[in-house]
């Protein structure tokens, strides 16, 4: 190697090496401080794209769990109201049984019928008043077999979305709840048929079968909701497992391995210190030429 004064090629080469080492040390420091292997698209463009999709799915799945829990709360609200309706129906059957016997006169049956009608009115009140977050549950608004969510207010059966996509087979359920008002159940003076009144002995006898049919209709709705609640609980378990596994996969792509990165950091730190020391020595080489001139 020639001994020159105008250009110190050894120092330039050492400086370039030092810059490269500092860049690697800076990247390693960023990874250790953030805990992420991928901090920008430059670190791993494909990995960044996969990670962001995974993060969006994880967030959607976690919200889906909350949506499903809200649906369970809604179902429990409806079921609790129908449990109260059960008590009214049982009392109505008791009244019908009482009025069906021949030991009461017409005036007494009218008194019994007045309580019967009061029970029917209370059933209708419960059906109209039961709601969840402003959504009426038992008045028949959710009894349609179709769903339309294109307007500001959705119509038809209830649409429960929990998946990260929009596939009807795997991303949402639809809950249909029939009306349990006294008229829908065929009971009380607002209805027509055998359960409308127990003011006569014959009417009371006929009402017994009508009340049984009403209890069956109401229990079918409760059974359907109970099955849906069990399904939602299983769905929540699956969503939580899916979110957990997706989070683990995202971590393997995105997170830094601290032990490996610390090894890399120590290596680059030693190389940087060595490069600084060598740059100092390289910068002193022109002094050798000066000593020759001075000599």
Kindly identify the CATH topology of the largest domain.
f41 fragment of flagellin, N-terminal domain
User: Could you say which overall geometry the principal axes of the C-alpha atoms support?
Assistant: rod-shaped
CATH class wording of the largest domain: Mainly Alpha
Question: What's the helix-strand series?
Answer: HHHEEEEEEHHHH
GO molecular function: structural molecule activity
Organism: Nitratidesulfovibrio vulgaris (strain DSM 19637 / Miyazaki F) (Desulfovibrio vulgaris)
Pfam family, one: Flagellin_C
Main location: secreted
How would you explain this protein's 3D organization?
The structure is a single chain. This protein is mostly helical and 295 residues long. It folds into two domains: 7-34 and 256-292; 44-252, f41 fragment of flagellin, N-terminal domain, CATH 1.20.1330. Helices cover 67% and strands 5% of the residues. β3 and β4 (155-156) form a beta hairpin. The relative contact order is 0.16.
Task: Summarize the model shown.
The longest helix is centred in the N-terminal third of the chain and has 55 residues, at 45-99.
Task: Give the secondary structure arrangement, pairings included.
Elements: H1 9-34, H2 45-99, H3 106-129, E1 131-132, E2 135-136, E3 147-148, E4 155-156, E5 158-161, E6 172-175, H4 182-185, H5 201-254, H6 258-283, H7 286-294
What keyword list fits this structure?
structural molecule activity, single chain, Flagellin, Flagellin_N, two-stranded antiparallel sheet, 5% strand, secreted, two-stranded antiparallel ribbon, 295 residues, rod-shaped, mainly alpha, f41 fragment of flagellin, N-terminal domain, bacterial flagellum
């Amino acid at each position: 190697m020639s001994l020159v004064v105008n250009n110190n090629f050894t120092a330039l080469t050492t400086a370039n090496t030092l810059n490269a080492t500092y860049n690697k040390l800076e990247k390693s420091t960023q990874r250790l401080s953030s805990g992420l292997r991928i901090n920008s698209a430059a670190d791993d463009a494909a990995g960044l794209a996969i990670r962001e999709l995974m993060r969006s799915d994880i967030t959607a799945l976690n919200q889906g769990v909350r949506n499903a829990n809200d649906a369970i709360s809604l179902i429990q609200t409806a079921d609790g109201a129908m449990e109260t309706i059960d008590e009214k129906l049982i009392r109505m059957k008791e009244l019908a049984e009482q009025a069906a016997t021949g030991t009461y006169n017409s005036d007494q049956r009218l008194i019994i019928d007045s309580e019967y009608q009061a029970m029917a009115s209370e059933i209708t009140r419960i059906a109209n008043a039961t709601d969840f977050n402003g959504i009426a549950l038992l008045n028949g608004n959710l009894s349609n077999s179709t769903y339309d969510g294109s307007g500001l207010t959705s119509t038809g059966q209830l649409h429960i979305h929990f998946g990260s996509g929009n596939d009807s087979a795997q991303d949402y359920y639809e809950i249909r709840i029939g009306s349990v008002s006294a008229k829908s159940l065929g009971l009380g003076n607002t209805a027509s048929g055998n359960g409308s009144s127990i003011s006569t002995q014959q009417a009371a006898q006929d009402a017994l079968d009508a009340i049984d049919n009403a209890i069956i209709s109401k229990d079918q709705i409760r059974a359907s909701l109970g099955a849906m609640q069990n399904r939602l609980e299983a769905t929540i378990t699956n969503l939580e497992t899916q979110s957990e596994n997706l989070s683990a996969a995202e971590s393997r792509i995105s997170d830094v391995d601290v032990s490996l990165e610390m090894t890399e950091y120590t290596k680059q730190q030693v190389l940087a210190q060595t490069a600084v020391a060598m740059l100092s020595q390289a910068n002193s080489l022109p002094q050798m030429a000066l000593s020759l001139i001075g000599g």
